[in-house]
């Protein structure tokens, strides 16, 4: 077996359910899990075959495949059906790209969490403790004379330590996963 082929199989076996779920979530396509799972277990496969195996509608299969293709997660080979003259599309999973895709997703999440964490750290919050109302940073609360602009209840200090801890933990975890 050539080294590149065995490397590919190695990478494919590393794609677990959690990875599939992350990819599907990032694409906003629940059915992507089923597709990648089928792709994972085939060397190359056509959209028709995927639709038959997954019971996902052919239109949806194609839509998801093109989304995966946009992120270079699958490659595409085109042949012509000798009988009908129509194009047949053969899809193939690119497992090495999958890892990069997940890493870049994680990086994006980390950036957002970092911004959020800095915001939580740098502000003192006031809150009316009405579940549907928002917390208000100190500077704004002063201007509002410590009255909630939504429900008019008094604004009281809000301790965001728990929130800070939870955010810090997620940031640390992500950094570890990203090897930073
Ligand atoms: Zn309120």
What does this structure look like?
The protein is of the alpha+beta class and 180 residues long. Helix content is 57%, strand content 13%. It starts with a helix and ends with a helix. Residues 128, 130, 133, 148, 150-151, 153 line the site of zinc ion.
Short recap of the structure:
Helix 2 (17-27) packs across helix 3 (32-40), helix 2 packs across helix 6 and helix 6 (95-122) runs antiparallel to helix 8.
Q: Which helices and strands, and how do they pair?
A:
Layout: H1 3-13, H2 17-27, H3 32-40, E1 45-46, H4 47-54, H5 58-70, E2 74-80, E3 87-93, H6 95-122, E4 125-127, E5 136-137, H7 138-143, E6 156-158, H8 161-177
Antiparallel strand pairs: 1-3, 2-3, 4-5, 4-6
Helix pairs in contact: 2-3, 2-6, 4-5, 6-8
How would you describe this structure in keywords?
single chain; 180 residues; alpha+beta; 3-stranded antiparallel β-sheet; 8 helices; 57% helix; elongated; binds zinc ion
What share of residues is helical? Answer: 55-70%
Taking Cα atoms only, what radius of gyration do you get, to the nearest Å?
Answer: 24 Å
* Biggest sheet architecture: 3 strands, antiparallel
How many DSSP-defined strands? 6
Q: Can you give the mean pLDDT?
A: 91
Strand content: 5-15%
| Unreliable stretches covering 5 or more consecutive residues | none
* Secondary structure category: alpha+beta
Could you state the order of secondary-structure elements as H and E? HHHEHHEEHEEHEH
Task: State the end-to-end distance.
Answer: 35 Å
Separate helix tally = 8
The largest beta-sheet arranges its strands as 1-3-2
The global form is: elongated
């Amino acid at each position: 077996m050539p080294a590149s082929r065995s490397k590919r199989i190695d990478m494919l076996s590393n794609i677990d359910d959690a990875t599939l779920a992350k990819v599907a979530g990032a694409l906003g396509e629940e059915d992507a899990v089923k597709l990648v799972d089928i792709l994972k277990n085939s060397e190359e496969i056509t959209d028709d075959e995927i639709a038959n195996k997954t019971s996902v509608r052919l239109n949806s299969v194609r839509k998801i495949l093109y989304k995966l293709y946009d992120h270079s997660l699958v490659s595409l080979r085109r042949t012509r059906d000798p009988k009908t003259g129509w194009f047949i599309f053969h899809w193939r999973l690119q497992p090495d790209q999958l890892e990069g895709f997940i890493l870049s997703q994680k990086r994006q999440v980390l950036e957002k969490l970092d911004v959020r964490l800095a915001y939580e750290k740098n502000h003192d919050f006031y809150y009316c403790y009405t579940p549907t109302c928002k917390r208000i940073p100190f500077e704004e609360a002063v201007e509002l004379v410590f009255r909630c602009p939504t429900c008019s209840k008094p604004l009281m200090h809000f301790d965001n330590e728990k929130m800070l801890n939870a955010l810090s933990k997620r940031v640390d975890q992500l950094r570890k996963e990203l090897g930073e």
